[in-house]
Design goal:
By secondary structure, this protein is of the alpha/beta class. The chain is built from 14 helices and ten strands. The strands form two sheets. Strands 3-2-1-4-7-6-10-5 form an eight-stranded mixed sheet, sandwiched between helices. Strands 8-9 form a two-stranded antiparallel sheet. Helix 7 packs antiparallel against helix 8, helix 8 runs antiparallel to helix 9 and helix 10 packs parallel to helix 12. It is globular and about 75 Å long.
Length: 359
């Protein structure tokens, strides 16, 4: 079984050493450098990586990915696409070999996309950038995905135990994401995933009216049937409305989001925050308790660390305090402290204890 890791790079010098160490279990490591002005290429070659240099103009992630895939040896059995700001945990090859089946075309594995300030996991979902050498083509100018175009029956499998972690360079600009997403939607207007991403990107850019318009369009698409993503579009519409001081409209969208995907914590927590800012303490209590009844975190990319950290316990404790229940307030601030060492939470606990003693 031959395993090849392939990647694209541009000015990744600081990542090279740890990245190569992370993927060295592969039989082949191939990188397409798309125009580094630092010593990325030099360091990669010194580490034994096969490096090719080529500028992609106009820039598209799918074109770069496809070109890098073309450089992988023809006799490779399994291709593993890993960016230079990502790290496999040791032993990934053994786990991939254990999962390997000759007729499997694509493998899914656990991916930690972000980490919280305290080092705990943030956004976690299943990734699927491990695939067979033949029959795959990357598509979309940005938020690109490997698409199976082979003639043999498609079969995928979870590769249990493989863990990939993402440590992004936050100094790098993502300014080209918006025009690339606009291009992606123009090229594939019926692709609901890209429509959702474009609406979210407008929100990131504080283009709230454009975001609302695009996300509503996503929800109207007959292809947009995945409840988790529909729920996210509704939540993002609500976030935009909040920024426009239209909180009543935001409440309506969050209620719709809950109805769309009642199995997700995120819409309950979003609505609890809205009620918190309105000082609707009983609303906070109801929504937080409903959120905390949900114990299983989604394995899709649509989950937010705040909903699974101290936040729901934190605002629930405050809501109980403001409704006169210091015992419950103390109970939930203790649970918040288990998940965060924030001094404010500890100060709240001290305050609640004093209130109970003087009651």
């Amino acid at each position: 079984m031959k395993i090849s890791v392939y990647a694209i790079s541009k000015n990744e010098s600081k990542f090279v050493k740890s990245w190569v160490k992370s993927v060295e279990e592969a039989d082949e490591i191939v990188v397409l450098d798309t125009g580094s002005s630092d010593d990325t290429v030099k360091k990669l070659r010194e580490a034994g990586v096969k490096v090719y240099e080529e500028k992609i103009d106009p820039w598209r992630f799918d074109v770069a990915r496809n070109r890098s895939l073309e450089l992988v040896s023809e006799d490779t059995d399994v291709c593993v696409c890993v960016d230079l700001d990502e790290r496999f945990e040791k032993g990934w090859r053994e786990k991939l070999e254990k999962a390997y089946e000759k007729d499997v075309k694509q493998y899914k594995y656990r991916y930690t996309w972000s980490f919280n300030a305290d080092g705990s996991e943030g956004v976690v979902f299943w990734q699927e950038k491990i695939h067979s050498r033949k029959g795959f083509c990357w598509e979309h100018p940005v938020h690109e995905v490997p698409k199976y175009i082979g003639k043999e029956p498609y079969k995928s499998k979870f590769a249990e135990g493989i863990q990939l972690n993402h440590y992004p360079d936050h100094t790098k600009s993502r300014s080209n994401y918006l025009p690339l997403l606009e291009l992606s939607v123009k090229e594939c207007p019926d692709d609901d995933r890209n429509m959702h991403y474009l609406g979210r990107e407008y929100m990131f850019h504080k283009m709230y009216d454009d975001s609302i318009r695009t996300l509503k369009k996503h929800l109207q698409m007959p292809q947009a049937v995945w409840r988790d993503e529909r729920c996210a579009s509704m939540r993002y519409i609500a976030k935009c409305l909040i920024q426009k001081n239209m909180t009543d409209g935001a409440e309506g969208w969050l209620l719709r989001a809950i109805a769309e995907a009642p199995h997700l914590r995120e819409p309950y927590v979003d609505l609890a925050l809205l009620y918190y800012n309105k000082k609707n303490w009983h609303g906070v209590i109801f929504m937080c308790e409903k959120a905390l009844e949900i114990k299983d975190r989604s394995l899709s990319y649509i989950n937010e660390p705040s909903s699974w950290g101290s936040l729901p316990y934190d605002i629930l404790s405050l809501a109980y305090y403001y409704t006169g229940n210091c015992e419950k307030a103390l109970e939930y601030v203790d649970k918040a402290i288990e998940l965060s060492d924030e001094q404010r939470l500890k100060d709240n606990k001290t305050f609640f204890i004093k209130k109970l003693k003087t009651a």
